[in-house]
Amino acid sequence: MTGLGKLQLLQKIAGLTLALVxxxxxxxxxxxxASLYKAKCAVCHGASGKGDSPAGKNMGAVSFADPKVAxxxxxxxxxVIEKGKNKMPAYGKSLKPDExxxxxxxxxxxxx
Length: 112
Hints:
By secondary structure, the chain is mostly helical. It has one domain: Cytochrome c-like domain (Cytochrome Bc1 Complex, Chain D, domain 2, Orthogonal Bundle), CATH 1.10.760. The chain contains 6 helices and no strands. The protein is elongated and about 70 Å long. The chain starts with a helix and ends with a helix.
């Protein structure tokens, strides 16, 4: 193998290693967001985000699949999580901005 061939092989290995490290980080972020959702949201919105839990039905929790809800912008989702809405409590003081961002991404994944 020539010097150039070895360099190209090393570059490919480095690229694959970086991709694996990044994917592992994203998976941990997804796990954290899933745990936060379970702890903070699922009681009312349900495991699938349809608002069909007993508490959710009682409080009128929305389904994330509802077109009016699903069509909201990322900023609107963040605002509701931070400030609360109707019977939903505000989480802006108890969650960090990156946790709120992770919840938005996780919630969007539920409706797909």
